[in-house]
UniProtKB/TrEMBL annotation:
It comes from Pseudoduganella armeniaca. GO terms for biological process: oligopeptide transport. One of its GO terms (cellular component) is membrane. The chain crosses the membrane at residues 28-49, 61-80, 89-107, 113-133, 154-174, 180-199, 236-253, 259-278, 299-317, 356-376, 388-407, 419-439, 451-470, 490-514. PANTHER family: OLIGOPEPTIDE TRANSPORTER-RELATED. One of its GO terms (molecular function) is peptide transmembrane transporter activity. InterPro entries: Dipep/tripep_permease, MFS_trans_sf, POT_fam, PTR2_symporter_CS. Keywords: Membrane, Peptide transport, Protein transport, Transmembrane, Transmembrane helix, Transport. Its main location: membrane. This is MFS transporter. The keyword Membrane applies.
Length: 527
């Protein structure tokens, strides 16, 4: 008879609580800072910007910061996989993270000092983000791998536990005690997170960095692109060169587009065209590299397609902390009475709904929805969940667009109307984000766990890049003229545009999911 270990149901690793507590405190610090960033920029730091342009500039700064925070995972993944290992990389980058929070609290009225603090937080938060989730996966092997899904859900639940209280309390602290206190408390929580992580140092499974690999992804890709066959051209190389040329043009356009848009677009073009070109000629790498290495590259390319199709979801999700707050600022806020306690909801506090609903929806899905689907013969696989999640985000933006239409028509709207789109968007998040962590780790080859998790977070960068591009395009007179012809306001048009973007992507994602073959890349035994 098979034991629990052979079935993958072995005991939970004892070091997991240290990582989960660390993550809950770190997420409190991150979301506590992030959720008051847009209101602080509009009300305090950007007062020198003309009033009519201030909201747009605040959204630009916010999404630029988010791009940075989800771009630096590439650096963190490289440092962990090739040089220092996950534990040391997480610990040392976390110290930069704490220093960034200190800068926000100290330089509340100094633009350069405040932006330097945002840079340090982007470096620290982004650098450790993929590594912590991959570090969780490292604590499991074939004997207890089935516990990983439960832990990833608990991991995500605790992240949102911290985020909930941050979203609820930080706007009040900003309003009542000012930015020094509001930005200082998240810094103290981050320092606590580092301490807890350090206390577990002797209990962790530490998978060492991979040595230089002659059969790495980049080397296999280079071989595939450059290899020649008698009588055949190199169409894949031509496609990759188009990507290089496009990236150079994008960098040159940074002067007019802005450096962030130019640099991120250049990276996207390199990855997209380089990946397509490599896929076209990948078989040419056989004989030069082991079949296992070639198939590993093929697996990575397939994973990157999934990640690319998730980017529209992030373009919708992250705007709850910018576009949705801007909308909420124009809505009425009734006085609520809960058990005799009267209070008025601040626009930024509406974001507390997201983590609160996450904490409710994760157990609801696992205990009610997914068993019910299985009972009627529908297995909620990772890719099916992600497909539905993208569609839910599109529905959320249809509702938020309807609210904006009503407001544009002169109908006063209560801030409570945002409850429905928050519920839909959060269901989308649970189905996409929590699932994506599990999917990314399980599908990644052993030598590329950190890098693959970095690519997962890079999807967030690209999602926010779409937001910057759309926001930049609506400043163009030609585009504004076409929007005017629709009879919609600019903000309403953008809302329906993003809704359609997500719904179309959900359709394409679902079709691709039908062809995707899952693999199992958990470790085979104890480290």
């Amino acid at each position: 008879m098979a034991t629990d270990q052979t079935q993958g149901n072995g005991p939970l690793p004892r070091q997991i609580p240290f990582i989960i507590v660390n993550e809950a405190a770190e997420r409190f610090s991150f979301y506590g800072m992030r959720n008051i960033l847009t209101p602080f920029l509009i009300s305090t730091l950007l007062l020198f910007v003309p009033l009519e342009d201030r909201t747009g500039e605040a959204k630009h700064v916010f999404h630029t910061f988010v791009i940075g925070a989800y771009f630096t995972p590439l650096l963190g993944g490289f440092l962990a996989d090739r040089l220092f290992g996950k534990y040391k990389t997480i610990f040392w980058l976390s110290l930069f993270y704490v220093a960034g929070h200190a800068c926000l609290a100290i330089f509340e009225d100094n633009l350069k000092g405040f932006y330097f603090g945002l840079f340090l937080i982007a470096l620290g938060a982004g650098g450790i983000k993929p590594l912590v989730s991959a570090f969780v996966g490292d604590q499991f092997d074939q004997t207890n791998k089935n516990r990983a899904k439960v832990v990833y859900d608990a991991f995500y639940w605790c992240i949102n536990f911290g985020s909930f209280f941050a979203s609820l309390l930080m706007p009040l602290l900003l309003k009542d005690y000012g930015p020094s206190v509001a930005f200082g408390i998240p810094g103290l929580l981050m320092a606590f997170a580092v301490l807890v992580f350090w206390l577990g140092r002797n209990k962790y499974v530490n998978v060492p960095p991979a040595p230089p690999n002659p059969d790495s992804l980049t080397r296999v890709a280079r071989t595939a692109l450059l290899a020649q066959r008698p009588g055949e051209g190199r169409p894949g190389l031509a496609v990759a060169i188009i990507g290089v040329v496009g990236a150079i043009v994008s960098l040159l356009m940074s002067y007019s587009w802005g450096f962030v848009i130019g640099a991120c677009t250049a990276l996207v073009l390199l990855l997209a065209f380089g990946g397509i070109g490599t896929g076209m000629q990948l078989e040419r790498a056989r004989g030069h590299h082991p079949d296992e290495a070639v198939e590993g590259v093929r697996a990575v390319l397939r994973i990157l397609i999934v990640f690319a199709l998730v980017t529209p979801f992030w373009s919708l999700f992250d705007q709850k902390a910018s576009t949705w707050i801007v909308q909420a600022n124009e809505m009425t806020s009734p006085v609520l009475d809960v058990l005799g306690w009267q209070f008025q909801v601040l626009p930024a506090q509406m974001q507390a709904l997201n983590p609160l609903l996450v904490m409710l929806l994760i157990p609801f899905n696992n205990l009610v929805l997914f068993p019910l689907l299985r009972a009627i013969g529908i297995e909620p696989t990772a890719l099916r969940r992600m497909t539905a999640g993208i569609a839910f985000s599109g529905l959320a933006w249809l509702v938020i667009g309807w609210i904006q239409l009503s407001m544009d028509g002169g109908t006063p709207m209560s801030i409570l109307w945002q409850l429905a789109p928050y519920a839909l968007l959060t269901m989308g998040e649970v189905l996409v984000s929590a699932t994506g962590l599990e999917f990314a780790y399980s599908q990644a080859p052993a030598s590329m766990k950190g890098v693959i998790m970095s690519f997962w977070t890079l999807a967030v960068t690209v999602g926010n890049l779409w937001v910057l591009i759309v926001n930049a395009s609506v400043k163009n007179d030609y585009v504004l003229g076409h929007i005017g012809d629709t009879g919609l306001s600019v903000i309403a048009f953008q809302m329906f545009f993003f809704a359609g973007f997500a719904l179309l992507t959900a359709l394409v994602f679902g079709l691709y999911a039908l062809r995707y073959k899952m693999v199992d890349n958990y470790r085979s035994g104890k480290a």
